[in-house]
Amino acid sequence: MTIGDVGGQKTLRSYWRNYFEKTDALIWVVDATDRLRVDDCREELHGLLQEERLSGASLLVFANKTDVSGCMDEDEIQQGLQLDAIKTHKWHIIRCSAITGANLQEGLAWVIQDAKARLFLY
C-alpha cells in the first residue's frame, strides 16, 4: 500500500492529479468542526471524483475532530458533502480524531478490505 498526504490547501490542489495513477482508494479528511468550509469541501470532492484515473476508487471520508464538542455528526457531514449523490464510487464515513488516533485503524481496515474485495475479483 502506498499512501500520500497531498494536503488540502488551495495552493496544493493543482498537484493532486499527480497522485492518481493506480489509485484504488481515496481517503478524504473533513474537519468536523468547520461548518463554514463544508461547501468548498463538497465541491472539491465531487470535482475530484470525476477524474477518470480515480474511476472505481473507493472513498473513505474521515470525519476528523469528532472528539470536539459541537462538531458535525456523520449525518451532517454526509448531507454537507452530498455523499448520497455519489453513485460512481463506493463510500464510507468514519468519525475519527487525529489527536487521539480514534478509529484511524478501523478506517484503514475498511479501505484495505474494500480494495481487496474488488482487486481479487480479476
From TrEMBL:
<dbReference type="InterPro" id="IPR044612">
    <property type="entry name" value="ARL2/3"/>
</dbReference>
<feature type="binding site">
    <location>
        <position position="8"/>
    </location>
    <ligand>
        <name>GTP</name>
    </ligand>
</feature>
<dbReference type="Pfam" id="PF00025">
    <property type="entry name" value="Arf"/>
</dbReference>
<dbReference type="GO" id="GO:0003924">
    <property type="term" value="F:GTPase activity"/>
</dbReference>
<protein>
    <submittedName>
        <fullName>ARF/SAR superfamily</fullName>
    </submittedName>
</protein>
<keyword id="KW-0342">GTP-binding</keyword>
<dbReference type="InterPro" id="IPR027417">
    <property type="entry name" value="P-loop_NTPase"/>
</dbReference>
<dbReference type="InterPro" id="IPR006689">
    <property type="entry name" value="Small_GTPase_ARF/SAR"/>
</dbReference>
<dbReference type="GO" id="GO:0005525">
    <property type="term" value="F:GTP binding"/>
</dbReference>
<keyword id="KW-0547">Nucleotide-binding</keyword>
<feature type="binding site">
    <location>
        <begin position="64"/>
        <end position="67"/>
    </location>
    <ligand>
        <name>GTP</name>
    </ligand>
</feature>
